[in-house]
Amino acid sequence: MDSTVINLKSKLEIYKAMTGGGNLADCPVRDVIQGLNGKWSSLLTAALAEQPYRFGELRRLVPDISQRMLTQTLHELQRDGYVHREVFPTKPPSVEYSLTDLGRSMFGALQHLLQWAELNHDAVREARKEFDTAQA
Amino acid sequence: MDSTVINLKSKLEIYKAMTGGGNLADCPVRDVIQGLNGKWSSLLTAALAEQPYRFGELRRLVPDISQRMLTQTLHELQRDGYVHREVFPTKPPSVEYSLTDLGRSMFGALQHLLQWAELNHDAVREARKEFDTAQA
DNA sequence: CAGGATCCTTCTAGATACTG
DNA sequence: CAGTATCTAGAAGGATCCTG
């Protein structure tokens, strides 16, 4: 079966996983998703999915991220187990960031959404334009 | 080919789509993803993927969302073309929200990530715990 | 019933300066 | 090189009251 085909059963399961139990605050799915909701999380994951990078390389690669947000986002991704941080005791020190197995697995799932976004960006933009002019 | 298998070519394409052109502020992928980064966007999309709901039904379904955020998030999802809003001129009025074709298409891609989150929540939690104790 | 308007709090993210 | 620390503006989100 094509894994892009979604049956109702899995929809219901996801929905239940997100809303069920009356304990939304501790909902597992939302807990994980929340960790990827940052402005830079997806972008940095996508970058590291290509190949490992060092701190400075990532800065140059993503010129409009502040060094504070780069540090912080990498830290969060590392904390959630997606990113491995390896320090090489050179002088001056160099630090390499790479995806863990969990990170690669997660990116495999995230990628569907990124690809969809790339393919359907025009439709979304068009919908926004239409909506905004209709409101005016 | 199993669509969960990622080849390097598509990785690179996504990465380029997210970072290329030196025009990150207008990056299409990030533009679309940003619209789904809200605290409630995924949850409401998942709910509406199951079936259409009325405003009050969604409130009861997601008890910990404020009515303000429910209104606002539905509005954003509608603006991006994911959600259709239909007003029935009854007394008092009733409004039904449902996914558009674009919304269903988007959810098909988002769902991979939600399913991954459900399956791997324990691993993420474990990683966090390990990271936090290692820091202490 | 389905919101709009307001006020307030918290969280996010950017700018800048400094350090091992 | 790879960060930390501090400060601040702005956005996101919550609480409450009001209405067609």
From TrEMBL, chains A, B:
Domain HTH hxlR-type: 27-125
UniProt KW Transcription regulation keyword: yes
Native species: Mesorhizobium erdmanii
GO molecular function: DNA binding
Superkingdom, natural source: Bacteria
Keywords for the protein's UniProt record, in alphabetical order: DNA-binding, Transcription, Transcription regulation
Keyword Ligase: no
Signal sequence, renumbered to the chain: none
Coiled coil: none
Record protein name field: Transcriptional regulator
Pfam family, one: HxlR
